[in-house]
Each structure stands twice: as C-alpha cells, then as structure tokens.
Amino acid sequence: MPSAEEASGRGLAAETCFVEVAFLLPGVAAAVDVLVAHLGGVSDINRFPTVVPGHPVENLVLGILSYLAVGAVVPLALLLLARTGQSPAELGLRVPRWRGDVWPAIGIITGGFGLTLLVALPFGVLLAHHSGLFGQVPTGHVPKYYIIYGLAISAITAITEETLVSGYLLTRLEQLGWSPRWALLLSLTLRTSYHVYYGLGFLFTIPVGYLLTRSFQKHRSLTRPIVAHFLYDAILLTISILAP
User: Fold this and answer.
1) Residue 129 pLDDT more than 80?
2) What average pLDDT does the segment 38-50 reach?
3) Which of 38, 59, 127, 166 is the most buried (most CB within 10 A)?
4) Which residues face 134 on adjacent strands?
5) Domain ranges of the chain
6) Which 3 state secondary structure label does DSSP give 177?
7) Angle 10-222-16 (CA atoms, 0-180°, nearest 5)?
8) Distance CA 227, CA 154 (A)
9) C-beta separation of 36 from 93 below 8 A
10) Dihedral angle at the C-alpha atoms of 108, 212, 101, 66, nearest 10 degrees?
C-alpha cells in the first residue's frame, strides 16, 4: 500500500500531466498543421481567419471570440492551484504596477529582442538561401483597426501561456521535488513546442521564453511575465499589420 504522501504525489503528478496535455495538445496540433501546410506550399495561410467573406468587422469579432478558447484551461489551472493553497494573489496575479511590473516587463522584452537578434545572426545564410526552413503566419492585407485583434490575441496568449507553463507548471514541479534547473528546462521545452509552425524559426522564441520563465522563478509574480509577453507579441503583431 502506498503511503498517503506517495499517493498525494502521484495524484499531483497525474493532475499536472492532464492539465498540460489539455493545454498543449490543441496548440501543438494546430502548429503542426500550419507547419505541414507551409512545407506543402500552401499559399493562403493567414493569421486572421475569414469566417464571413467581405465582412472584416464581423471576422474581427468572431476571430477574437474563437481565440478565447485558447484560454479555456486557465480557470481550471487556477482553481486546482487554489485547492492546494496557491491563490492567485500568491502567484502574483494583480493589476499591473508601473514600477513593479511594467518597467521590468519592458526590460524583459528589450533583452528578448536583443537575444533573439543574436540567435538569428548565425542563421543569416540559411535565412537568405533556404528561407523555406523558416515558416511564418502572415497577417495578410487587413484594415489597420485589426490592431484591436492583435492586442486581444496578444493578451489572451500572454495570460494563457504564462499561467500554464510558468505559474501552474513551475509551482507543481516545485511541489513534486524538481530542481529549478530541470523545471526551467521542461517549461521552456513545452513553451517552445507549440511554436513549431515557425520551422527552424522556433529557435528564435527560446531567448524571450527563457527570460519570461526565469522572471517567474525569481520573483514568483505572474503579472510581470504576462505584461512582458503581451507587449512582445503586441509589438510584433502591430508591426505586421501596419507594415503592408
């Protein structure tokens, strides 16, 4: 007969696996679909779905509503953490503060952009001569007010990813006795897995992912990496919308 502590540990490990699979499976499957479409030469891949042709406003609203499904596991993860004593307040979820969250978040994304550039430099030749190895999901030609869409999905993505691969996962791995180094490695691996649609470009997501994960490990505050992640994605999406 396993002891109560062993049974509790096994239950916690099983819970962690189930929650992470529920979060990761749809994202990884969608990322693989996009990657295969890219490698197969599909030319109409677009980040913004067209539900009603010729009605951009309706598509914007419906697209945001559809994307909300990405965050469906967040309330469950927070509830499960609260049941073992980790309330949202203990995870550092709060209204962002300029000095404690926003300014440090700006520092994180600045470092993220800088490190990403350094990582990209050695791949310059591949980018120039084998661009097919690096996938992307274009925004297409959409009205400028689609920045609203970009901000919305950036917020949903930031809250979901940081809650699941930092707040929930790192907390559970600590409770299961994992060392910070191995917990960081697993979190970063899972965080990277649903960016495979970039092809080899998934490597460029590692620097900012590392900084976001380390931020939570060091400060035990989810708000700071959420704000940083939101700003990082929002800047890139805003540029891609305004650039065409």
Assistant:
1) no
2) 61
3) 166
4) 199
5) 4-242
6) coil
7) 15
8) 10
9) no
10) 110
Angle, vertex CA 49, rays to CA 44 and CA 53, nearest 5: 85
* Exposure on the CB side of residue 133, measured as CA atoms within 13 A: 11
CA dist 212 to 71, 106, 191, 232, 239, Å? 18, 12, 10, 11, 22
Alpha-carbon distance 206 to 229, whole Å?
13
What letter would DSSP give residue 168? Answer: I
Instruction: Give the percent of the chain with pLDDT over 90.
Output: 51
User: Which segments of the chain does DSSP mark as H helices, in order?
Assistant: 4-39, 56-67, 74-83, 103-120, 124-129, 147-162, 169-175, 180-193, 206-219, 223-242
Model confidence pLDDT, tens digit, residues 183-209? 999 999 999 887 776 666 677 888 899
Q: Per-residue pLDDT averaged across 213-227, rounded? A: 95
What pLDDT score was predicted for residue 4?
Answer: 44
Q: Between residues 68 and 2, which one has the greater pLDDT? A: 68
Using the structure block, give the residue that is written with the tokens 């400028």.
Answer: 144
pLDDT digits (tens, 9 = 90+) for 175-185: 999 999 999 99
Tell me: the pLDDT tens digits for 77-112? Answer: 999 999 999 999 999 999 999 998 999 999 999 998
Residue 29, number of CB atoms within 10 A of its CB = 10
- Residue 214's contacts (CB-CB under 8 Å, 6 or more residues apart) are 184
Please report, in angstroms and rounded to a whole number, the separation of the first and last CA atoms in the chain: 65
pTM, two decimals, is 0.87
| Rounded Cα gap, residues 173 and 188, in angstroms | 13
